[in-house]
Amino acid sequence: xxxxxxxxxxxxxxxxxxxxxxxxxxxxxxxxxxxxxxxxxxxxxxxxxxxxxxxxxxxxxxxxxxxxxxxxxxxxxxxxxx
Length: 82
Hints:
With 82 residues, this protein is mainly β. The protein has a single domain (1-73), classed as CATH 2.40.50.220. Helices cover 6% and strands 39% of the residues. It is built from 1 helix and 5 strands, in the order ββββαβ. The chain has one helix at 55-59, and strands at 2-10, 24-28, 34-39, 48-53, 70-75. A 5-stranded mixed beta barrel has the order 1-2-3-5-4. A hairpin with a 5-residue loop joins β2 and β3. The protein is globular, with a radius of gyration of 12 Å. The two termini are 17 Å apart.
């Protein structure tokens, strides 16, 4: 699992069938790296979240057949970025 900050919502009108209508978020890491993740919890921009990678990311989604390898699993309520 890794900690990221949600930067923005990602809107895509054309997707592969395995993504369906899954919410997508742009994430930024502590070292400045940027990734896109499926959002299983409805994380708004500005919030810190924790994610899971690989095949566990699919299992974290309501439909485990979702095509994803990075999923937001939770919104962090209190964490000091240090």
